[in-house]
């Protein structure tokens, strides 16, 4: 009887020990999912210290794998194999390191051998291999960054094998989650949401609601995105990643204050490790919270962060805060440290030097950034600098490159785009010596073509016609073709229409109107021989300048010639 009782007590104690172990593992995984890596590390290390089993070594290695400590992961998995060579999970972990190192093909050889050795009957093996195929893909990175570190199709195949080949006939929460992740990588939103929802039916979690929201965000179903994110908060308000996702959502709509608020809340819920602080600094920078970005960057640095991106973040943020020399200094330190260059580095070098009034270096860096930055049209910045420098031919070239950039992005050029080019050509022609009539006329004709393009898009903006008239005056270098006449007439017509509409979009400049009336007075009298129009033009001109500085009255038939002003 005593023997039986003793055996029963041993069995019960083992049962409770197993339950406690499982609970501790789940706690560590939750901490890992909740961006609390130090807590997760302590949990898994205490697990190994209490029971140095092959399984516990696997979870310690798994933690290191997830946080990117690949050498520590390798050591943990290898130790697990020495404890129990028959436990296949540590072998899976070692192969998963190859996936992390963008060597999927090499990893697959190892994975296939492990599956063969376990006769495709071990559900944990199939699940963990499938997970490895999706673990290292980051939805926020481009395809190049994720190249060679995932195989979603193979992950789905392995998950689907589990109910067919093993004793597990219904997929668990974690298995459906991995399946959803695989479909998300494939950008197949419907099956991804379906898998996540199947997992959520079994066990509602903030993590799953967050993933569902990410799928909807990708599909631009914004209300569904918000609904899913709000469900995540309601399910577990301490789940830190949801606040980061909310911040990213508000960033899309340029609601930067809301984004910054959520990023800061993220740090309050996550573990404020140097890595997370620096990551949050980058997010705050995107939310245009430059002061917050500097604050968190400094905290990360004080906590021992050695990431060379610290130079970059300080450089960018200082420049945005108009502390441009400090910004340039940090960017130069970054270059000296041999940090891998990024196109935005050139953008911020350019902004910094522009702030310091070093226009030549600013243009140099904008020109370096322009071909690489597909999101921003830096040719406009180059145009502004060159125009300010009165290097009009270069400004015109930048304006045309800006139009070409838009065309490549399948964006329509605006009337303002063509006006920029036209105005630059006009001044380039005007500043060309009259003796160089060939280049002067050539530049003016390019300006005329550009003004025509601007007018074709918007025929209600007076300066387009005014400057086209002036440009034609340059083309008409002999002054006897009166090429500007139709454009001065159109200028006056547009001005009149705006007045009739009581429009406030354009404030008439009397000197410009006088210029048009003076020119047309001569045209009507000498070319069209229309004295009625001439008298009307002169009358209106004299209303603007009654002192008649150009002697317009004397131009009319029968008028007394103007008395020349006495010589001084």
Summarize the structure in words:
By secondary structure, this protein is mostly helical. It is built from 29 helices and no strands. The chain has helices at residues 2-33, 37-50, 54-67, 70-83, 89-100, 104-117, 123-135, 143-146, 152-165, 173-185, 189-202, 206-218, 222-235, 241-252, 256-269, 274-286, 290-302, 309-320, 324-336, 343-355, 359-369, 379-388, 392-408, 415-430, 437-457, 462-475, 485-500, 510-526, 531-544. α5 (89-100) runs antiparallel to α6 (104-117), α24 (415-430) runs antiparallel to α25 and α24 (415-430) runs parallel beside α26 (462-475). The longest helix has 32 residues, at 2-33. It is elongated, with a radius of gyration of 36 Å. It starts with a helix and ends in a 24-residue tail after the last helix.
H-E string: HHHHHHHHHHHHHHHHHHHHHHHHHHHHH
Q: What's the end-to-end separation, in Å? A: 138 Å
Query: Radius of gyration in whole Å, from Cα?
Result: 36 Å
SS strand fraction: under 5%
| Strand-pairing-aware structural class | mainly alpha
Task: Count every beta strand, where a strand is a DSSP E run of 2 or more residues.
Answer: 0
Give me the number of helical elements.
29
Main sheet record: none
Mean pLDDT: 92
Global morphology: elongated
List segments where confidence is low: pLDDT < 50 over at least 5 consecutive residues: 8-20, 564-568
* Helical proportion, percent range: over 70%
């Amino acid at each position: 009887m005593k023997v039986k009782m003793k055996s029963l007590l041993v069995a019960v104690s083992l049962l409770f020990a197993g339950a406690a172990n499982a609970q501790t593992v789940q706690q560590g995984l939750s901490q890992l999912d909740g961006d609390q890596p130090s807590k997760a590390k302590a949990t898994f290390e205490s697990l190994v210290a209490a029971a140095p089993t092959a399984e516990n070594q696997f979870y310690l290695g798994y933690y290191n794998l997830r946080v990117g400590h690949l050498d520590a992961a390798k050591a943990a998995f290898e130790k697990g194999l020495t404890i129990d060579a028959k436990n296949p999970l540590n072998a899976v972990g070692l192969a998963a390191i190859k996936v992390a190192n963008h060597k999927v093909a090499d990893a697959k050889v190892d994975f296939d051998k492990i599956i063969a050795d376990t006769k495709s009957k071990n559900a944990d093996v199939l699940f963990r291999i499938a997970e490895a195929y999706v673990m290292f893909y980051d939805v926020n990175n481009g395809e190049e960054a994720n190249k060679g570190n995932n195989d979603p199709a193979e992950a789905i195949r392995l998950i689907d094998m589990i109910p067919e080949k093993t004793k597990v006939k219904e997929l668990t929460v974690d298995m459906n989650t991995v399946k959803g992740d695989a479909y998300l990588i494939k950008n197949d939103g419907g099956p991804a949401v379906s898998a996540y929802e199947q997992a959520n039916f079994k066990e509602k979690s903030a993590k799953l609601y967050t993933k569902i929201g990410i799928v909807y965000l990708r599909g631009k179903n914004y209300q569904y995105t918000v609904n899913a994110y709000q469900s995540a908060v309601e399910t577990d308000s301490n789940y830190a990643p949801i606040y980061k996702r909310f911040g990213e959502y508000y960033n899309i709509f340029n609601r930067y204050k809301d984004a910054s608020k959520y990023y800061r809340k993220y740090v309050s819920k996550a573990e404020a490790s140097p890595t997370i602080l620096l990551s949050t600094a980058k997010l705050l920078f995107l939310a245009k919270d430059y002061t917050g970005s500097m604050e968190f960057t400094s905290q990360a640095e004080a906590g021992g962060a050695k990431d060379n991106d610290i130079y970059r973040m300080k450089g960018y943020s200082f420049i945005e805060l108009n502390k441009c020399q400090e910004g340039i200094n940090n960017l130069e330190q970054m270059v000296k440290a041999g940090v891998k260059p990024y196109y935005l580095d050139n953008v911020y070098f350019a902004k910094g030097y522009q702030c310091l009034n070093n226009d030549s270096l600013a243009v140099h860096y904008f020109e370096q950034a322009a071909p690489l930055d597909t999101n921003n049209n830096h040719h406009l910045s180059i145009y502004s600098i060159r125009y300010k420098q009165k290097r009009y031919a270069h400004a015109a070239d930048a304006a045309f490159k800006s139009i070409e950039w838009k065309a490549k992005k399948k964006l329509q050029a605006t009337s303002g785009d063509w006006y920029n080019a036209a105005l630059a050509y006009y001044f380039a022609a005007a500043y060309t010596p009259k003796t160089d009539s060939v280049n002067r006329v050539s530049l003016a004709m390019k300006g005329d073509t550009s003004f025509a393009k601007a007018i074709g898009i918007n025929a209600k903006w007076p300066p387009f016609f005014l400057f086209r008239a002036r440009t034609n005056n340059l083309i008409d270098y002999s002054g006897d073709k009166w090429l500007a006449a139709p454009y001065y007439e159109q200028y006056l017509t547009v001005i009149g229409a705006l007045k009739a509409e009581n429009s406030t979009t354009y404030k008439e400049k009397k000197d410009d109107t006088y210029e048009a009336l003076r020119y047309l007075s001569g045209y009507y009298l000498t070319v069209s021989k229309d004295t009625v129009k001439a008298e009307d033009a002169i009358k209106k001109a004299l209303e603007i300048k009654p002192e008649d500085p150009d002697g317009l009255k004397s131009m009319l038939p029968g008028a007394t010639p103007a008395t020349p002003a006495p010589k001084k």
